[in-house]
């Protein structure tokens, strides 16, 4: 199966050919995929070199002229390094762009901590007006990328990962999807965590919601799944643990509830290993999830 990132250049090339507003900005990373597109559209395929602050600043400048810029590099270089430009050049000036990242939280451990960005979604959450898509499959990534480019002049972040679920589900760029129904708790699985969550909760009496768009947060779906009584909610996020805990609390205001936020821990893992080893070390593999979710929900979740 191809990866989410494998879809990026072909999809954007078709959008460049069909929409004169679309522009693509790169900072060396991924530039090879746009060689032919750059020949056809030299004024709208721009490689700024290894200058990530300029990358975002130039995107804002193009947006001010009426273009729809799509900006791509590793997450740590797209959100963290040029955060001031994301905050001011885009947000403060009131213009939009589509930021499309690669490498996610720890997809390329050999690259070291400089190439890891588990805090990206939490950091964007400090800013107003961002839509954040976290696809769990290449087909979903393609759909959400098209949604993002077509979203007028909005500010959109699309978080691509090498990690993937086995099958794609229909996604609409807004709502959570109910994958399994139960009565003893709610588990929200974000993006590529879904397969492991479904394995971990097999036989547990829980509702599983699948989230591929996490900002805005689908509070209505959580309220419906939680029901009228006391609610227990587990969040499983492929980035910093607890990133959406406040959003769940806001969704359940007035409802007695508990929230357990599972995700990537704050402790730096200095033995980089493999992505699968990082998943296990952060307690996001099926066995660990089973223990943590089952322990939190207790005997009521077991049939």
UniProtKB/TrEMBL annotation:
It holds the Pfam family Transketolase_C. It is an enzyme of class 2 (transferase). The keyword Cell membrane does not apply. It comes from Streptomyces griseoviridis. InterPro entries: PDH/Transketolase (IPR051157), THDP-binding (IPR029061), Transketo_C/PFOR_II (IPR009014), Transketolase-like_Pyr-bd (IPR005475), Transketolase_C (IPR033248). Residues 2-165 form the Transketolase-like pyrimidine-binding domain. Keywords: Transferase. PANTHER family: PYRUVATE DEHYDROGENASE E1 COMPONENT (PTHR43825:SF3). This is Transketolase. SMART domains: Transket_pyr. Its EC number is 2.2.1.1. It comes from the Bacteria. One of its GO terms (molecular function) is transketolase activity.
């Amino acid at each position: 199966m191809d990866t989410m990132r494998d879809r990026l250049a072909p999809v954007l090339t078709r959008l460049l050919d069909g929409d004169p507003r679309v522009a693509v900005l790169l900072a060396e990373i991924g530039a090879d995929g746009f060689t032919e597109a750059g020949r056809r559209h030299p004024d709208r395929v721009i490689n700024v070199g290894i200058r990530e602050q300029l990358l975002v600043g130039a995107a804002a400048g193009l947006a001010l002229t009426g273009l729809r810029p799509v900006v791509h590099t590793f997450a740590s270089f797209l959100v963290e390094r040029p955060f001031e430009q994301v905050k001011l050049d885009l947000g403060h000036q009131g213009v939009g762009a589509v930021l499309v990242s690669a490498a996610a939280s720890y997809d390329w451990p050999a690259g070291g901590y400089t190439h890891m960005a588990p805090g990206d979604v939490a950091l964007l959450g400090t800013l107003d007006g961002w839509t954040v898509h976290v696809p769990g499959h290449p087909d979903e990534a393609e759909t959400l990328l098209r949604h993002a480019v077509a979203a007028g002049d909005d500010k959109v972040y699309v978080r691509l990962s090498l990690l993937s679920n086995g099958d794609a589900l229909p996604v609409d760029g807004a709502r959570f999807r109910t994958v399994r129904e139960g009565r003893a708790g709610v588990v929200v699985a974000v993006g590529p965590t879904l397969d492991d969550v479904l394995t971990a909760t097999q036989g547990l009496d829980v509702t599983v919601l699948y989230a591929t768009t996490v900002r805005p947060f689908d509070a209505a779906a959580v309220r419906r799944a939680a029901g009228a009584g006391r609610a227990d909610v587990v969040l499983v996020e492929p980035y910093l643990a607890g990133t959406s805990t406040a959003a769940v609390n806001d969704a359940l205001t007035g409802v007695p509830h508990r929230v357990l936020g599972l995700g990537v821990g704050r402790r730096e893992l200095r033995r980089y290993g493999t992505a699968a080893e990082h998943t296990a070390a952060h307690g996001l593999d099926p066995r660990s999830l089973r223990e943590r979710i089952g322990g939190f929900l207790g005997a009521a979740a077991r049939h």
